[in-house]
Amino acid sequence: MKNTGAKTLAKKVDFNDYLSSFMKSCGTYGIVGAAAAAVIVPVLFSSILMGKKKGKKRGVPVEVGGEAGYAVCNARNPQLAQFPWEGATTIASLFEQCCEKYSGNPCLGTRKVINKDFVTGSDGRKFEKLHLGDYEWQTYGQVYQRACHFASGLVNFGHNVDTRVAIFSETRAEWQIAFQGCLRQNITVVTMYASLGEDALIHSLNETQVSTLICESKQLKKLAAIRTSLKTITNIIYFEDDESANISDLYRSTSGWNVSSFHEIELLGERAPVAPKLPSKDSVAVIMYTSGSTGLPKGVMITHGNIVAIAAAVMTIIRGLGRNDVYMAYLPLAHVLELAAESVMLSAGCAVGYGSPLTLTDASSKIMKGTKGDASVLKPTLMAAVPAILDRVRDGVLKKVEDKGGLAKKLFDFAYKRRLQAIEGSWFGAWGLERWFWDVFVFEKVRAALGGRVRLILSGGAPLSGNSQRFINICIGAPLCQGYGLTETCAGTAFTEWDDTTVGRVGPPVPCCYIKLVNWAEGGYTTSDKPMPRGEIVVGGFSVTSGYFNNPEKTDEVYKVEFMLCIRTGQLVDERGMRWFYTGDIGQFHPDGCLEIIDRKKDIVKLQHGEYISLGKVEAALMSSHFVDNLMVHADPFHSYCVALIVPARDILEKWAQEAGIEYKDFPELCDKAETVSEVRKSLSKVAKDAKLDKFEVPAKVKLVAEPWTPESGLVTAALKIKREQIKTKFKDELQKMYH
């Protein structure tokens, strides 16, 4: 069976027949005729119309306050955007106005579970399979009424509006409805990943003194196990599902908590409406706990004004965003990327259809045979994704191409090369006749796996390799816009514009903030560097959050406010009314005002002979190896080389072993074999050479780890970023052996 983990989603994408339309054309017109058309038509038109699109200024230098540095703002919006329109100063007011404006339009969609079954894998494990129906939609008007009812129901249920509510659940429509309902009573919502471990869950709930917890019924068992450690919880509200009937009555009588279903809370509010207690723009809407990649998670305080500013800014960036768009919602809403994305979509009147990574495509692990995946049914026009998913989509396509072999592979390679030349060479080639030709004859089936209508994908949460960005852009046939942001900047910092065909950059600043580079002398990065200014990335503007909850020391360390003395009043005032957040990331600005992330302060290690190695940079390069599912590079200052822990792509490694005649009894034994390690190292050396890594940046020793790294194991975050310290602790002995 396939491994689960970071590669799960992409490995489940079925690209078995994505070249069938081209091969049919070969059968109809003859292979020679089809191949001739494949070569002659695009080349002829591209030769006639080839021409570089002239560059344009996307970001421009700006004078700002704070620490000296090189600052840039969005070229189209030098005055920072704060609100999408007058009167929409909070999420509550923005949502209410949008629901009135788009009252009859589809808002939130969910697929009903028709049937479920379990199948047994070759290793004896049982896997759940779902038969899902079509999307059932609620209009904006209906969703608004449900949010109002839930807000009133919370008060009637006994929740004290001066205390906090936590949402501990997978992404679903009820999550968004509960969120909007809480905000109508100016209740701060604490968000936590559904995969959060017990220690982090206890820490988050106790630190924020949550009194009401909203969760899925399947989470009740986890909560019961830690009940005595939860100091302030008095109310539990659960989302109904198939498990509800089996356990809810038991918890009502034995838990000691006030327990109610989400539907019952709505009925309480519908029967006895309570006047809203609306927030201000400076009210804290969310305390969002970060992934905890460096220890216990920190709670970031996000205001209404932060989220509204992001919505106002991004709505000006995505071309034609509006009520005709359909957004595929499947990433964790407890992650700032998904929360910000859905806020933007709802502000623009888009339809939001909910799914999950395990039901996204026709071949996803939880999809029953004969049932369509979420994307096939929804046919979204807009999606968000994290790089780990996109990297695996690329690997999945390439694997199927290799399996096809022969003429099919040659045609794919030629088509890919022509599309790549077109995108990099001419606007017409990228979006005109040549795009149409290759989409129809080669890439159509790839696009169909995601519904066939995707017009823009946003990648965020971690750096995306240039190879993956270009590959997805070509095969899906839509702009892949890489974004850059942090929980501390409410996701929005920089965003690639739809017509920017470069790779490896994250675009200009979004129109609600400034980005400034400041010198980092220790790392050798300065704003006077040539040919481009470089330095630590500092963000200022309306998207910068209020700091860390109950952690003033850490807040003061990375959030800076420059003050000046007002002569008239003699008081200290903020010189520009904004806070500056020091990201710890290193960037450089290109001449057109686009930002490129080139390093991270915490990831830089000085080796024994004085060379500096950027762990994140090396990891991003080595991920291109088809043998790698996940990895962590480790460098010890007392040695002159680095090493790596590799989670191999199981199916690819096993296929290689079969072809090479390698005998083994199980996968861990295969990972330990010297010839296996040697083959993986050869692959790493090749991709390292292609990425122009220095010799000391190529791991001298590697250890293959058979067990995948998943959020449940605590070794990667919910956004699939590695937790470096946790991995180092777990594999302490293995790392030590590689240095001896």
TrEMBL record:
<dbReference type="InterPro" id="IPR020845">
    <property type="entry name" value="AMP-binding_CS"/>
</dbReference>
<keyword id="KW-0812">Transmembrane</keyword>
<protein>
    <recommendedName>
        <fullName>AMP-dependent synthetase/ligase domain-containing protein</fullName>
    </recommendedName>
</protein>
<keyword id="KW-1133">Transmembrane helix</keyword>
<dbReference type="InterPro" id="IPR000873">
    <property type="entry name" value="AMP-dep_synth/lig_dom"/>
</dbReference>
<dbReference type="InterPro" id="IPR042099">
    <property type="entry name" value="ANL_N_sf"/>
</dbReference>
<dbReference type="Pfam" id="PF00501">
    <property type="entry name" value="AMP-binding"/>
</dbReference>
<feature type="transmembrane region" description="Helical">
    <location>
        <begin position="29"/>
        <end position="49"/>
    </location>
</feature>
<feature type="domain" description="AMP-dependent synthetase/ligase">
    <location>
        <begin position="131"/>
        <end position="549"/>
    </location>
</feature>
<keyword id="KW-0472">Membrane</keyword>
<comment type="pathway">
    <text>Lipid metabolism; fatty acid metabolism.</text>
</comment>
